[in-house]
């Protein structure tokens, strides 16, 4: 099998369509189909399910994809190393991040990085903690932002301690926003919660303080959570990073006991990063580590 075969397989897997893969790679749909069929004949098993609704990975294809990603990433690393030997900073870095990093940190990181390394491309993947962990383990992204508690067995470099605050509808509590909110004051309130894959640190804090919250609202993104709180459907806990430039009128209180999440940058093996990836990884640690 050739690198083109691997590229065809990955592109079809990513987009679920022979036609879309053909458009992206500049090939004909029949060439895409022929490449996949030849690959399956050589492997001795099917890697894709074909149907009228689209194309999906077989179980064999699912298990094969991380290895194909590794081969393609190794090829990219090789050409980046060659460019580096020639005194050039080129290549591509694929970055995974969760919502509040994408809105509050990533634009500044990308702008400062592009000023120094204009020929290195950056590709961004936004998702939940679970998404970023999956992308790192399967070679979809090179580096990813996670909280330390959500990283599990993935090596992570801590960058920033992000305090958790209590967010409530405007005027709900008769106190100034510079006052502290004690955990006991929250026990009888309806909560708006997010899934554990999105706010594992908050879920951990609630469990550690025996706060069995009542919630009828289980959302994924930060802005939806704040919107529901602003409109009186409950209260929530939220990292301070999220609360920057929020377009809703709410009150925020520091929490007692003190609570926070630690945000970090993760990669599967920091000793074997491609040159462009290593350059961005070091740029982030040098310029954005504050812990």
From TrEMBL:
One of its GO terms (cellular component) is cytosol. It comes from Butyribacter intestini. GO terms for molecular function: DNA binding; DNA-binding transcription factor activity. The keyword Transcription applies. Residues 1-58 form the HTH lysR-type domain. Belongs to the LysR transcriptional regulatory family. InterPro entries: HTH-type_LysR_regulators (IPR050950), LysR_HTH_N (IPR000847), LysR_subst-bd (IPR005119), WH-like_DNA-bd_sf (IPR036388), WH_DNA-bd_sf (IPR036390). PANTHER family: HTH-TYPE TRANSCRIPTIONAL REGULATOR BSDA, HTH-TYPE TRANSCRIPTIONAL REGULATOR YBHD. Signal peptide: none annotated. It comes from the Bacteria. This is LysR family transcriptional regulator. Keywords: DNA-binding, Transcription, Transcription regulation.
């Amino acid at each position: 099998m050739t690198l083109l075969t691997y590229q065809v397989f990955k592109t079809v897997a990513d987009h679920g369509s022979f036609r879309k893969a053909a458009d992206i790679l500049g090939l004909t749909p029949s060439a895409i189909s022929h490449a996949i069929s030849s690959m399956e004949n050589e492997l001795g098993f099917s890697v894709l399910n074909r149907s009228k609704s689209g194309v999906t990975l077989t179980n064999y294809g699912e298990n094969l994809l991380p290895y194909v990603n590794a081969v393609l990433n190794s090829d990219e690393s090789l050409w980046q190393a060659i460019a580096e030997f020639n005194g050039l900073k080129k290549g591509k870095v694929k970055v995974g991040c969760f919502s509040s990093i994408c809105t509050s940190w990533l634009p500044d990181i990308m702008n400062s990085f592009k000023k120094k390394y204009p020929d290195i491309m950056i590709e961004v993947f936004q998702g939940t903690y679970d998404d970023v962990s999956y992308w790192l383990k399967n070679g979809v992204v090179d580096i990813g932002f996670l909280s330390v508690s959500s990283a599990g067995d993935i090596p992570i470099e801590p960058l920033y301690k992000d305090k958790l605050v209590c967010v409530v509808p405007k005027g709900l509590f008769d106190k100034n926003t510079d006052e502290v909110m004690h955990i006991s004051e929250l026990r009888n309130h309806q909560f708006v919660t997010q899934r554990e894959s999105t706010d594992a640190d908050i879920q951990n804090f609630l469990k550690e303080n025996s706060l069995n919250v009542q919630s009828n609202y289980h959302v994924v993104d930060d802005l939806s959570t704040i919107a529901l709180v602003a409109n009186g459907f409950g209260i929530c806990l939220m990292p301070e990073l999220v609360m920057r430039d929020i377009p809703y009128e709410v009150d925020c209180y520091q929490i007692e006991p003190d609570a926070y999440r630690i945000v970090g940058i993760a990669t599967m093996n920091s000793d074997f990063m491609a040159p462009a990836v290593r350059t961005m990884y070091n740029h982030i640690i040098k310029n954005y580590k504050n812990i």
